[in-house]
Amino acid sequence: MKIIKYKIVIIGAGNVASQLSSALKQSKHNIVQIYSKHTSSAGRLAKSLNCSFTNNPLEIVNDSDLYIIAVNDDAVTEVVQQLRLKDKIVVHTSGSVEMNILNPSSKNYGVFYPLQTFSKNNKIDFKTIPICIEASNASVLKTLQLIAESISNNVQKINSEQRKTIHLSAVFACNFSNHLYSIALDILASADLSFDILKPLIEETAKKIKNNPPGEMQTGPAARNDKKTMNNHLKMLSDNKDYQQLYKLMSKSICDFIKEKK
Amino acid sequence: MKIIKYKIVIIGAGNVASQLSSALKQSKHNIVQIYSKHTSSAGRLAKSLNCSFTNNPLEIVNDSDLYIIAVNDDAVTEVVQQLRLKDKIVVHTSGSVEMNILNPSSKNYGVFYPLQTFSKNNKIDFKTIPICIEASNASVLKTLQLIAESISNNVQKINSEQRKTIHLSAVFACNFSNHLYSIALDILASADLSFDILKPLIEETAKKIKNNPPGEMQTGPAARNDKKTMNNHLKMLSDNKDYQQLYKLMSKSICDFIKEKK
């Protein structure tokens, strides 16, 4: 398949902007400019991509094919106010922001939402990342699809309503799970134990739901309704009321889930 | 290294018993008998290991080197009452049960706790699983170490107090995370969306803490204190008060964690 090369401006210089622009460049697209309020981040990212950068919205070039807004959800509206791009394609990368918010910036707009967790110092392989696309019209959708498919094998057409649901589910599965890892680390550290001992378990827990529904893989004291162990755990958590409350709520939710399943 | 082959009786026929006995057999130990109250499970497991089985505690052979009790935590005490093995080594495989509970069954006892989540139909590679061992005396500890090292490269001497802490942390990192995956699936299913879309994200979330502390990898609305998105999510969850409460509590805990870190 012949891949069309697009001229792309990246708006934002954080984790998503960095990793997405790097993947696009690898697929031979032409990243022409980085815009960010934060000059130093913009400069760093532009240097790594060998392109220009600016912190002045008036200096954003107006002859690119695609403008990707990869900034914090709260900042999207603000950025949109500064863009007047007529018929150029403008997209944002957010799971929770409405597509129509982009309307003032161009008559051709859409969403390009890579469903992944992006952190500094953690290089991502885009090939397996689901990219959720949505567009203001069929022609834009086609272009977004071509670009998304040039970096990922998992491109899906997802409307705004569906995207919000996916984002909410991702908060539970990813953000909240990661915080549970932090709590586990904290509990271990308070007894001078290394978090390393949990790593194979965490990896396996995430791996086994690839081929099995998580509900059928549930193990642990709450799944067996083992009240003695749960009470002991609550006692061990008596110094931390937040962890204790979380333990109670999660365990109750697991017990309810197992009961319903039966 | 020459591996000594031990004669082993397995007490229990559930997930841990099955996977552990299979790993021990693979390392050329001699599994001589399965005991379980549940005749059919005992029979099935014995057949796969090509050994004898019984559901009568009086028929448990008394000339083996090691007796591994791999039953539910609550059932360990009951099983111990039925064992009188003098100086044979008796161990349990539980994260939360005291070692000394085994005292009546033999003067040589200990713990052999594989820190992993065992489910049906999900074959585990023991090589990377931490096995936490503890023993009533140095000689038993040495034997347990030899046996553990014959199936795993990650054997650790862990006392009962430490083991309880590790088990508690594992409930957060593994059991609770898995339940969050179930909730995510439920949220997606209620909008007719497939859980598949989340799988790369779940895998990456677990993978990235291998080389980075989870606290530094935290992403999502709560980590950015993005109140607008959090309020939208709470509205979306208004039909399910349990999920809503869990969302609030987890988000608050993440916000507090990020504040403390700063």
CATH class of the largest domain in chain A: Alpha Beta
Low-confidence segments of chain A: none
Treating each run of at least 4 consecutive H or I residues as one helix, how many helices of chain A? Answer: 8
The two chains with the largest interface, and their residue counts, are: A-B, 94 and 95 residues
Q: End-to-end distance of chain A, in Å?
A: 50 Å
- Order of secondary-structure elements of chain A: EHEHEEHEEEHEHHHH
CATH topology category name of the largest domain in chain A = Rossmann fold
What is the overall silhouette of chain A? Answer: elongated
User: Tally of extended strands of chain A?
Assistant: 8
What structural category characterises the helix and strand content of chain A?
alpha/beta
Assembly state? homodimer
List the domain count of chain A as a whole number.
2
Q: Order of strands in the sheet with the most strands of chain A?
A: 3-2-1-4-5-6-7-8
